[in-house]
Amino acid sequence: GAGVSQSPSNKVTEKGKDVELRCDPISGHTALYWYRQSLGQGLEFLIYFQGNSAPDKSGLPSDRFSAERTGGSVSTLTIQRTQQEDSAVYLCASSPNGVAGGEQYFGPGTRLTVT
Amino acid sequence: KNQVEQSPQSLIILEGKNCTLQCNYTVSPFSNLRWYKQDTGRGPVSLTIMTFSENTKSNGRYTATLDADTKQSSLHITASQLSDSASYICVVSRPFSGGYNKLIFGAGTRLAVHP
Description:
The complex is a heterodimer.
Chain A (H helix, E strand, L loop, with lengths): L4 E3 L2 E4 L5 E6 L6 E7 L6 E7 L2 E4 L8 E5 L5 E5 L8 E8 L9 E2 L3 E5 L1
Parallel strand pairs in A: 2-11
Antiparallel strand pairs in A: 1-3, 3-8, 4-5, 4-9, 5-6, 7-8, 9-10, 9-11
Chain B lengths: L3 E4 L2 E5 L4 E7 L6 E7 L6 E7 L4 E4 L2 E6 L4 E6 L8 E10 L5 E5 L3 E6 L1
Parallel strand pairs in B: 2-11
Antiparallel strand pairs in B: 1-3, 3-8, 4-5, 4-9, 6-7, 7-8, 9-10, 9-11
């Protein structure tokens, strides 16, 4: 079956512009996660959705970052007034549920470059 | 502080040789430890998941070990192939309220297998 898909695969934007990144999880997966991977760094947790609610959004680095999930499926990560330090690969993952031991399936990521 | 440290940072080996990657963690409490393989430009793919009661788990030519007392894990790759060239990421799962697990990622070991 289809895996996690993300779009766009690459995004170049000017500093100060807003961007939207999209994640389509595996059908039926209730849990969805956003991560950020900066060059040479480990993945950094951003936000976790269970259904349409976000029980843990503690990883969002500033109020310029927000995310929503609709219909228990597609999620959008929005970055307002982008800064150069926002440049990174943004990865989305989904799992059948959020409980202990649950496997997370990752998408290919969106590479964001802020010029 | 909850941390996951990996060594070496990078490694070059010849095709057919074996290698061992190391992971030390200070995450507490602990649910499970995972090893992921991340090819360039792709999302991470799970290799193994181990709970604290498991000492070893194999997946083909990949064998992971876990010592929960010393908080150390290793990933051993046998008879390496060119396709093993990737980043290998150690990930520790930490339980949160409601049964949700947050993943804490190491920075990864970049492995290059040369012919």
